[in-house]
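Q: Protein A?
A:
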Amino acid sequence: MAQTNNSSFPSYGAKDIQVLEGLEAVRRRPGMYVGGTDIKALHHLVYEIVDNSIDEALAGFCNSISIVIHEDSSVTVEDNGRGIPVDIHPTKNVSALELVMTTLHAGGKFGAGGYKVSGGLHGVGSSAVNALSEWCRVKVFRDGHVYFQEYHRGIAQAPVKIIDDCDEDKTGTVTSFKFDKQIFTEDIDFRFDTLLTRFREMAFVTRKVKILLVDERVSKEVTFYFDGGIVSFVRYLNKSRENLHPVFYVEKEMDGVSVEAALQYTDSYSESVYSFANTINTIDGGTHMTGLRSAITRVVNDYARRNNLIKESDPNFSGDDTREGLTAIISVKVPDPQFESQTKVKLMNAEVQTAVQQIVAEGLAEFLEENPNAGKAIIQKCLTSARARDAARKARDLVIRKSALETMTLPGKLADCSSRDPQQSELYIVEGNSAGGSAKQGRDRQFQAILPLRGKILNTERTRLDKMLSNEEIKAMISALGVGIGDNFDVSNIRYHRIIIMTDADVDGAHIRTLLLTFFFRYMQGIIDAGHLFIAQPPLYLISYKNQKKYAYSENEKDEVIKEFGINPEKIGMQRYKGLGEMNPEQLWETTMNPENRTLLQVSVEDAAQADRTFDMLMGQAVPPRNRFIQTHAHAVQNLDV
């Protein structure tokens, strides 16, 4: 190889090899330890500390955990577990507490001594939180003393010391921390509802443990305690649905893997299945989810054949057929779980699939034999689902049959963009032909496509796929998006990386937006998960005085604009936009479609179980839960069209 003496090249020798000491690696690469520096990662800091308390509960030493968000957004997590050990480590010659808090991969969960099963497994949870905190303080109650140590950005400020005495039988750990704004540089803060949802789930899967969440910023407090565990979880999810049978529950251990499963079929058309490993919500599923699904499909088919509930000539039910209307929770406790990453979104242990499949199959087969009415109801549900799915497949094929010839499948009402690069392209789904006309004239044709919808689409919460595909507006959306639907849904085929719902700022517009969100959540959640779905924010007011014009996007902003003008409000011209059609193309472009000026809200699903329950309550068949919701929140409504 020719040697180059180019002084502009950076040097690369022994002196250029960096060794990151202590917790500096976490501060340099937070994404490796907590998934990044966004709002999700911020909440992950709390989860890591609470996971340690839950591990004490799983070991049988803790039954009370409290989480307090203080007014300055610092967080305190307290439990009544055994307390982190404080004695001197035999080889490191520092307190075990300091070792746990300041050293990566230090913890009591690697051998068989401290914990049989745990959620905190990599020994980086507490130390990562400490590293990413401006300050962190830990108090430990053990052996009649209160031990204390403080850290600044991961560095201990003094050795562990005794600061007080306590009752001999009092044990536990209190961890307080303030996230570091040098790391979390975005304007973000903890969301009470996000934490509430997470800890509700934890309380369901860790029964008989009290979890208290307090938010001192807004004076909110909630306590969770469930005797029924995941059976209560299934009942909670199905509160607004008509159930076809009592909840099936099985709990058993096999080869060291503890398996808990609960399931119930309802009149719903969607599947609500959630998986947990060592109390951690594995949102991407894994081997326990695979084992559950395959067991259900096999047992339902065997039962139907054995009891002559389907014809010999009929094919077996598919997995999709056996999961329509299914609500299920699978929770496993694994001594040595293999997660896909530190953020623990997917379980990888192959032996767990075998254990779950066998335990659930045996338990469910016995349940169906002992409850023939439940068995018949489930088979009838699967039969109806299979027929509807076959009809949907035929209808879907009509919608996408010519997908290879792109221009032949695009709906006539779509005003497409010139760009064929999905990353550069965006689709506005617009309410009504009037607004659609303004949007078509005001858009940038190079990268913005417009799809106007006529009226309100079907409520897909109450409609099966086969009926849904007869709706012209829904067929137009499926064709325009290019991702398919049902069995052949593939988000990688998406034609636009920004899909923007743009509806009027009135009650009808909000209803149409909700119908569209229901459709995407139930049938194209992959688009939401990939971050492609947005909601446009058109202005509510045009405020003018002489040659000055300003737009206001909320009531508060309107008041601020009027104050800025500094004159008698009666002299100010004000136009309230109730519909997009009231704006001319230039105004619509300037306020809502120009990437340099517009505001878009990205749609995300932080908690699928809560979103599932909310959509079912607001858009489903049952009326009483919806009435209760309306009555509860009626006073919060500020702008209601009359």
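Q: Protein B?
A:
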Amino acid sequence: MGRHALLVATGEYEDTGLSRLRAPAQDVERLAALLEDPDVGGFTDVRVLRDAADDEIRRAVADLVADRSGDDLVLLYFSCHGLTTPSRRLYFAAANTVRDRPAGTAVARSFVHEQLEDCHAAGRVLVLDCCFSGAFVEGFKAGDAPVVESGSGYVVLTASNAYEYAFEEDTLSLSAPRASLFTDVLIEGLASGAADLDGDGWVDVNEWSAYASREVRRRRPDQTPQFFAQSSGAALRVARASGVPVTVRQSASYTSGQLLVARGFRAAAEPVCRTLGPLGRRSVVFTGGRPVELGDSAAIAAAFAPDDPRDLLGASYVRELVTAVHLEAGDGAATAVAVAQGAITRLVEAMREGHNPVRLRAGVLAAAGRAAELIVGAAEPLADPVRLATAAAGDVEVGRVVGRAVDAAGRRGAVVVERGLRDGMDFTVTAGLRIEAGYASARFATDPVRRVAVIDDVAVGLFVGQLVDPTPVVRLAQERALLVLCSGLSDQALRELARREGVVAVVVDDEWLPGAQAVVGGHVLDADLVRAAGEGSLGHAARVVVTDRDTTIVADNARYADAATAAAVLRVDEDRVGLVERTVRAVRGAVYAGVLRGAGVGLAEVGATLAVEGPDGLARGALPRDDSARGALPRGAPPRLERGDSPEAAGWRAFASALAEPARRIAENSAVAVTDLDPDLIDSAEVALAATAGAARTAARFLLVA
């Protein structure tokens, strides 16, 4: 059964005799969002037509009712000026309507009526929010059909009778600065579930109309909404009740744009989340019209093409999140997607309850910041790099070789991945260093997509103080690639170096310079005395790899084999270079940041602590704090939003609850309960930090969609 809606909103008029309406534009967005929400209206498609000409509106109405079957439901909504002639003919004003010539420039009541009357859909619902809208139903009978399993008929809900204006809360809708009273009440009834008068979990047109009539009359006794049926069988179900019927003063605050993003995000997130866990599945996605089996979250996100073009925007959110987390941490993209999906789902619920998205965003970002603190505090040192590398790669051979290479390089050593000339993997150990500082400008990146600079056969200049004039250093490099490590860099020097090909500048703390000298040779120079540098002043490196976060130096082994730090050079077949690079980043991050309990359990524990603390930092319950209770995952459903929460608290709770999603998805993929997940698994705390931050950025971006 298809559910199809057309919402026509006209607030701007060419004829100055028709005053501008502010209500339609905001009304139609909120109503469209509710109708399209799969947990409320569940409509197959909702088309919104704003400020259109009369011929465009007529064509859209004809498209709405054409080719419908006996199982379909169609809903047509008008929010505009209603115009009546002396003979009581009703017209719906379009953007090009001439006030005293409605017959030739507006949409006639007779046209709309005939289209709905001839439509083959079993259910036809017309909602009219305009002045004198009751004139449409002259000759209809009152609609009072009973509620049964499915519905049929042709019914009309009007904001007023044939002689009344449609009011906003305290002004005529002709100049409404706020939402129209009638549509606002209709939205309120769906958003809160209050229109489910019999408590069966559904809102049918009878209940929707009765609720609207009661609430409008209570607030404006001089406005009389009406419900008529030209023909009716069983009452038509408009939507699911979204909660326990409670009358609320706020209406849903999300937009149809947010619903589009949420829907597309969910479509793209599903195949990515199937890959989570040691028993994660492979997803089949279509690329170039052909089905492809993929097990890597980055490949899935890149290849995913939604069937419905409306899902493209939300799918792009997933793709960008996966790319960002992989670049930052090497692993954890699917974890980030699961958290973001859980957060978005809960934030839609919060906005359905009327919470302001901007204030929800503040709660989400505050929760993410506190989560980062809890992750750092819970992290333990990495004892087994091979085990973590195997889990991150999902490949035993990759895990074994990467784990051994990282172990051989040590905490400050470097690990570099190269394309090998033959199949398989191996590594060699030479002198090298990894510095915790990245390039001074993204303009130094030789690969902007991967955000990395890779240079070979490199002259290295080491400088204490601020480098102002880099020209002598560039001259000494003699056309070779050049790495400049300095404790300060003037704007002029940065611009000069960024213009030169094969040059990378990194600003570092002075403490890194002696270690770098031990690896590359040369001298540590005073930046003010750079003109006194001679040929032996520069060091040399076989290869340098610089990202926005760190710098990896591989020494010339023949000259500096006795350096205190080591570099592991991994040679990998072409097909696995990307996987190995991401695995190395994940393991190196864990070397520095430590590890959490794996399978998403550590992240779920952080979420449980957040839920108990609340945004004010005060514990509201009894979460055990002693070591014996550490790691105990709360049983039961994740914490839900509490009625009465402030928007900030609701945003905090939404994000806290979403942190349990990776563990839930891993358990689902492994066909076990969350409490039965393997306790021996471990996750990188660095990856958890990147996934949490990435999910929070995505949720915050979603909340600002208009």
